[in-house]
Amino acid sequence: MKKLCFAKNITLALAAALPLCGCLKSPYHVTQIPNGGALTGTNDFAGTTPAISTDDSANASKLPLSDPNLTGGIPAANNADYDTWNADKSALAAYTVHFDYDSSTVKATEESKLAAVAEAMKGATPIAVRIEGNCDERGTEEYNRSLGDRRANALREKLVAMGLDAKKLLTVSYGEDKPVDHGHNEAAYAKNRRGDFVLLTPPSPGQLSKLENKQ
After folding, report:
1. Which of 35, 103, 140, 166 has the smallest C-beta neighbourhood within 10 Å, fewest atoms?
2. CB 138 within 8 A of CB 36
3. Which domain holds residue 102?
4. Is the pLDDT of residue 73 over 80?
């Protein structure tokens, strides 16, 4: 009789614990919005609602880390090789790619911009391009840095698929640090969720001489 009661108690305890187990499966890959409300826009993590929190220390440790030598299965460029190259931010400014909220997916409407960048690179050498990933201000700094990295690498993968040399495509994430619009509304956020292309060209002989003298 005692064994029967004991088994019955265990069964009841397990049944009571099941709802709690379901709670433990809530996703952590969600941008935390300090003092925010429900947001509109596409979310990479379908079926979830952005959590509202002022403390993301628990989530920060779970952010995906980038392999410095491999991005999206493609060998990474060595950024140090281009430290002395000239950066022209205006040359490809017309082809800035914009992203949906909390997304690193390149939209079909932006594909023509990538095609234009690819065509420009194929027609001139030696040149390289630095792809800069950016985010709006919502979410933690750590999360946005990671999201900016994913955006930059998504663009890089597309350009490699179009036939460009992976070693000529550098990536960097600025997260939320370099907004083009300092407003705090959806119009500003849409402008800041972007990937910029910066044209890199080798230094002239005169510039090289100055660099060598400094060394």
Report:
1. 35
2. yes
3. 64-214
4. no
